[in-house]
Amino acid sequence: MGHAFSVEMTSREHVNRIYVSNDTRSPVVFEGELKIRGLRIVEDLMLEVNGVNGILRIDLTAEEFEHYCKPETCTCMRGDKSG
């Protein structure tokens, strides 16, 4: 099962690039500057990354967050780009 997410920016001034192709197999890119102030788990249902310039929300429970933060389960910490 995938995890839903949303990005809310305070202004387009902080968005560097948005790329969406008509080809459904092409990547979609959203880049910006968040300037992180903090992280929190909201109602044990959502990870919220609060920044000066916006908020990133990911449908991720506290248990899942802890699981993915462990070095043995976080493939990005080993340099594996597949996970």
In short:
This protein has one helix spanning 62-69, and strands at 5-9, 15-19, 29-32, 36-42, 46-51, 54-58. It is mainly beta and 83 residues long.
Helical residues, percent:
under 10%
Q: Distance between the terminal alpha carbons, to the nearest Å?
A: 14 Å
What coarse outline follows from CA principal-axis ratios?
globular
Q: How would you classify the quaternary structure?
A: single chain
Biggest beta sheet attributes: 4 strands, antiparallel
Model description:
The protein has one domain (5-78). It has 83 residues and is mostly beta strands. A hairpin with a 3-residue loop joins strand 4 and strand 5 (46-51). It has one helix spanning 62-69; strands spanning 5-9, 15-19, 29-32, 36-42, 46-51, 54-58. It contains one helix and six strands. Helix content is 10%, strand content 39%.
What's the topology here?
Blueprint: E1 5-9, E2 15-19, E3 29-32, E4 36-42, E5 46-51, E6 54-58, H1 62-69
Antiparallel strand pairs: 1-6, 2-3, 4-5, 5-6
